[in-house]
Design goal:
By secondary structure, the protein is of the alpha+beta class. The protein has 2 domains: 125 residues, no CATH class; 58 residues, no CATH class. Helix 1 crosses helix 3. The chain is elongated. The model has no long low-confidence stretch (mean pLDDT 83).
Length: 208
């Protein structure tokens, strides 16, 4: 069932495995003094399920956060574009990329092991991450009060209104533990305490 909010989002896929393969770096501009390095792009392998063949993701904009395995992706099927990413990578990364090709039923002949951009383009297993939101300006038309109310009360129309206020205060990610919204909630079972954090955050039961 489609959500009325789907039109604002690119298709988002939840991955089970997200493995870093390689990061290309370059020296920061300097005047003879070493100022460190900065990333140019990163290469990742992702699997939607453990038993599924993987895909390769080239991340130039730094979209990928290993703690967030939900991604919106667009295919890269141009050989020249792929070549820019895979020509100068570590032997380990190239081996992993070649292995991912083989997982998807493609073979690389020994005579052409150094040129894997062509089979990668043909396989359509190469992607780059994009914004999850289609158009940042389009979300201005949302009724945000109704949107937040649906998040808070998505399955409990008659939920205790005091609990609604608590959950609204805790909906945004905190900036500092000293300043975050805290609450001691003592209510009967089945009123929506735990499931809110299962859906929108992290629930830690019996931590002490």
């Amino acid at each position: 069932m489609e959500s009325p909010y789907d039109k604002y989002l690119n298709p988002i896929i939840q991955f089970n495995i997200l493995s870093h393969l390689y990061t290309k770096t370059q020296l920061k501009p300097n005047s003879g003094k070493f100022k460190g390095s900065e990333p140019v792009y990163s290469i990742w392998q992702a699997k939607q399920e453990i038993e599924y063949p993987g895909i390769i993701i080239f991340d130039k904009e730094g979209y990928i956060d290993p703690s967030d395995q939900e991604l919106a992706l667009i295919v890269i099927d141009e050989e020249k574009t792929i070549e820019q990413y895979v020509t100068f990578v570590s032997p380990r990364a190239k081996k992993k990329i070649k292995g991912t090709l083989e997982e998807n039923g493609y073979t690389v002949s020994k005579d052409n092991e150094d040129t894997i951009s062509k089979p990668l383009a043909k396989s359509q297993i190469c992607y780059r991450p994009i914004n999850k939101i289609r158009d940042i300006w389009s979300i201005d038309e949302l009724d945000w009060e109704q949107f937040i109310d649906k998040i808070i009360r998505w399955d409990a129309i008659n939920k205790d209104p005091r609990l609604n206020h608590i959950h609204k205060a805790q909906l945004l990610e905190g900036l500092d533990q000293r300043l975050n919204a805290h609450a001691l909630v003592v209510l009967n079972a089945g009123v929506g305490k735990s499931i809110h954090f299962n859906i929108h955050g992290i629930q830690i039961d019996k931590a002490t």
